[in-house]
Amino acid sequence: MQLFYLPDIAQATLSEAESLHCVKVLRHQTGDTLHVTDGAGHLYQAQILEAKAKACKLHNFQLVREEEPKGFHIHLAIAPTKNIERMEWFVEKTIELGIDQITFLKCQNSERKGINLERMEKKAVGAMKQSLHLRLPQLSEEIPFSTFLKQAEAEQKFIAYVDENHTKHLKNCLKENQRYLVLIGPEGDFTSEEIQYALASGFMPISLGNSRLRTETAGLAACMMCQWVNE
Question: Per the database entry, which stretches of residues form a coiled coil (predicted)?
Answer without folding.
Answer: none
